[in-house]
Amino acid sequence: MADNSLSSARPLGVLGSKLLERRDLVGPRDRTDFFKFSLKRSSDVNFQLSNLQANADLLLLNRSGKAIARSQKGGKQAEQITRQLQSGTYYVQVSGRGSKSTRYKLAGSTTAGGGGSGGSGGNGTRSNPFDLGTLNGGSVARSRDTAGTSDAENKFYKFRLGQISDLSIALSQVSGGGTMRLYNDTNRNGVLDFSESTIDSGDGSVSSNRPISAVFPSTETYFLQVVRDFSASTMQYDITFNTTQVPGNIPTDPGSEPTTAFNLGSLSKGGRLEAKDYVGRVDENDLYRFTLNETGRVTFGKADVAGDINTNVTIYQDKNNNNILDSGESIGSLIGANGSVDLQAGVYYVLANQSNVSNTAYSLSISS
Ligand SMILES: [Ca+2]
Ligand SMILES: [Ca+2]
Ligand SMILES: [Ca+2]
Ligand SMILES: [Ca+2]
C-alpha cells in the first residue's frame, strides 16, 4: 500500500475548521495507514475514527513520527483524539489490531486555540460554556440543545455544587445520539483545558439513555461536554441536571498527610468525634487527626452514606514524629462497619480513602 510509512503518508493538506473525511480499510494484509497534515497556527485538533467493523486504533504523531496522543479502545468502539497543537506538520496513524480487517471513516478538524475570555451566560462553547451556576438540590434543565462532532460544535456546560451531592445528568427526547463527558477543573483556572481528563460519562440516543449518576464534592468546578456520535446524523436533546445534597460537616477538605490532616480535636472517655465528607475520583484521601486524652478502648465506625460502597478506613500513629505516615505506622484497618482497639493516650491519624473510580459520601465516627 502506498500509505504504509511516514514518508509515503497520504496528504490531508492544511487542517482547518472544515471537517475532513477519509474512508479506507486496515487489516491483517494492510496494518497501518498514515495521513499527513499541517497547521498554520496553534489549534485545538480533533480526530475521530469510526464506522469500525473490527478493532482499530488511532494515533497522533509529531513530525518525527513520535506518538503524542493515542486512542486505543477495544473492539468496534470509535476512537477519538483531541489535542491542542502548535503550528507545524503532524501525522495521523490508523492501525488495524485484530485478525479481521475493518473499513473505517477518519474525520478531522480544528478549532482556533486560545479561546475567549469567558463571559457570564455562556454560549455553549468550550471557552464560554453555558453557566448553570451553583446547583443546590432539585433540577435544572435545558431543552432542545444541539451538538456536533467537532470540538467547535460540541456543547459545554459549567456548574458548581453547593454541597456534596448525589449528581444525576440525564439526556431525554434525543434525536440522533451522543456522549456526555464530565470533567472537573483540575488546575483551577476556570477553563476546561484539553489536558483535563474525564471523571465520568454517559450517553443518549433515540433508543437508550445512560445517565451520569455519582456523588461529587462541592470543592470543584465541573464541566460537561456533549459530543454527537460520529454515526449519528443529528444530536438534539433535552438535558436535566438533578442534585440531592448529602452535606458534610468538615469546613475544609482534609489533605493526605499529617501536616494537612483535618484536626478533629481531642477525645475523652465517653466522647465521640464524627466526620462526614467525600472521597473518590476527584479527592482520593481524607486524613484526620485526633488526640486521645486517656488510654483506653476506642471504637471506630464507618458508613457509606451515598454513592459507591467500601470506603477504606485506616488508623495510623506517627511513631517517629517525622510528619509522614511511614509503612509500619499503621495500627489497623477497619473491616466492616465497626471495630475497637486499645490505644495509649496520644495523637492518632485516621485515613478515609477510595480508589479513583468510586465516589462516596462517607461518615466516620471515633468514640471512647
Ligand atoms: Ca482547567
Ligand atoms: Ca474529601
Ligand atoms: Ca481530601
Ligand atoms: Ca512517621
Could you please describe the fold and organization of this structure?
By secondary structure, this protein is mainly β. It has three domains: 6-112, Jelly Rolls (Sandwich), CATH 2.60.120; 130-245, Jelly Rolls; 258-367, Jelly Rolls (Sandwich), CATH 2.60.120. Helix content is 0%, strand content 57%. The chain contains no helices and 27 strands. It has strands at 10-14, 20-26, 32-39, 43-50, 56-61, 67-71, 79-85, 88-96, 102-112, 130-135, 138-146, 155-161, 165-184, 198-205, 209-210, 212-216, 221-228, 235-245, 262-267, 272-280, 285-292, 296-307, 312-316, 330-333, 338-343, 346-353, 359-367. The strands form five sheets. Strands 10, 11, 12, 13, 14, 15, 16, 17 and 18 form a nine-stranded mixed sheet that branches. The chain has a five-stranded mixed sheet with strand order 1-3-8-5-6, with no helix packed on it. A hairpin with a 3-residue loop joins strand 14 (198-205) and strand 15 (209-210). It binds calcium ion (CA) (4 copies). The site of one calcium ion has 7 residues, from loops.
Quick description:
The protein is an all-beta fold and 368 residues long.
Question: Topology of this protein?
Answer:
Elements: E1 10-14, E2 20-26, E3 32-39, E4 43-50, E5 56-61, E6 67-71, E7 79-85, E8 88-96, E9 102-112, E10 130-135, E11 138-146, E12 155-161, E13 165-184, E14 198-205, E15 209-210, E16 212-216, E17 221-228, E18 235-245, E19 262-267, E20 272-280, E21 285-292, E22 296-307, E23 312-316, E24 330-333, E25 338-343, E26 346-353, E27 359-367
Parallel strand pairs: 1-3, 10-12, 19-21
Antiparallel strand pairs: 2-9, 3-8, 4-7, 4-9, 5-6, 5-8, 11-18, 12-17, 13-14, 13-16, 13-17, 13-18, 14-15, 20-27, 21-26, 22-25, 22-27, 23-24, 23-26
Bound molecules: calcium ion (4 copies).
One calcium ion (CA) is lined by residues 185, 187, 189, 191-193, 196.
